[in-house]
Amino acid sequence: MKTKLLMAMLLTATFSYAQQQPENLYQKNLGVLENGTLEQKDSLANALFSDVKNLKAEEDYRMTINILRTLGHEDKMEAVTKTATKKFPKGSLTRDTYITEVFYEAEGSAAKEKAYKELVKKWPVKNFPEQELTYDYVLANLAGTFAKEEKPTQAIQYLEQMHERFWRGNGYLPVGQTLLAAGDTVSAAPLLKVAMDDAYYYISLPEEQKDNKAKFAAMGYASSMSAYVGILVNRGEYAEALDLIEKAMAVAPEQADGLSNVYYKSLMGTNRKLEAYNVLSKLYAKGQFNVENDLKRLYAELNGSMQGYERFNAGLKQELVKSIQEHIKEMAIYKEAPAFDLLNLKGEKVSLASLKGKVVVLDFWATWCQPCIRSFPGMQAAQAMYENDENVQFLFINTWERDKEYKKNVVSFIEKNNYPFEVLYDDQKDAQTGEVLAGKFGVRGIPAKFVIDADGNIRYFLTGSSPNVDYIKMEMKELIEAAKKPYQAATKS
């Protein structure tokens, strides 16, 4: 995770420079970086490394380091970093190295706080204009550590020092959620409200003013709104909750799904039962079966009895199945799956060839990828559904890890969460292209899932995730059962 944050800081720090240099080194070599052979990439890495002695500005070093990282030459990247930090002891590269190797390695709030104070003493924020976001990452991490130790006063103290409003919610929201989970609604509520209000500000801007920062900030609206309104609902403040939700849905109707759970509860609390029933029906029809008790209660109240409920329930589920069947048609492809031979957590080789005759589900993921992890309970439930089917195999392909200790981290993550997954390490580079398996499959973002039929052909490719366990189960069932059918039959169905 810390390496991912460092990458973000490196990119943030180079933002203004990149805008000033339209034909920078990265863009100049983009063809090799994206489509070059392994020989071409190695040649570029060697050329860049040889040219280091001629570099003058710190940003030139940073660009070279970023390209070497992209090329997978970590040894050269580390060597250039050492040279740069010696040459620019008070520069941003040395600062970022300190953040990675000292601050993020510190354990506990006391050690992190000490490291943070040393950071701002040696590398004051004022010395790095337009790089405030780098410090905001650190402040959010420090506040999060205090929150986990149930020290809200210190957590809030550091959150209030954040600089970038568009990113502020990424510190306030998780800290608020952590405090909320610990039962501290008094401390959590104001933080969640700040995150919600910030997101509302950006989401309600005129379209011509919505730059990438505004769009990023707006993405957190449903999460912060749901958490804050959830507090109001639990307090019985339904009218205020409802007012906030309907205000949100007016400016951002696309957020409706994310607000549905608190919306129906607020409607019920204000005695708008028919509207609550309609929202609940839609939720249930999208696979959120955990709302069934409330749905039953409203059904009985509005209809005077439970007569006809089972037929109604079956209709909603049938509607969901049809919706999923239509949806997966958009994911359908047909091409031979790239062969692979990767090691699992036990060090055993697992190949695609050895699984011929089975439907294989591949799930590309990383420990730092929150959307990947959000989908795991649903994927676990889907795998359990097929645990007695010898003709179906789930494989969880761990890819794009950037920490040197990734294998230890992966094992720790799987064991901590007790996931019964067959995990394979995607760390074998192709001799010709230098790509790992994710690259061979054309993965551009994770999570990415592939369903491969018994003959070794990719039949479905889907990206993104859902935290909805029941929906994932039903979706995976439709995908797997479709992949079991001969290709022609599947395309006609």
Automatic annotation (TrEMBL):
Instruction: Give the protein name, as stated in the record.
Output: Thioredoxin domain-containing protein
What keyword terms does UniProt attach to this protein?
Answer: Signal
Signal sequence segment: 1-18
Q: Does the keyword 4Fe-4S apply?
A: no
Question: What Pfam families does the record point to?
Answer: AhpC-TSA
Q: Molecular function (GO) terms listed?
A: antioxidant activity; oxidoreductase activity
The protein's superkingdom reads Bacteria
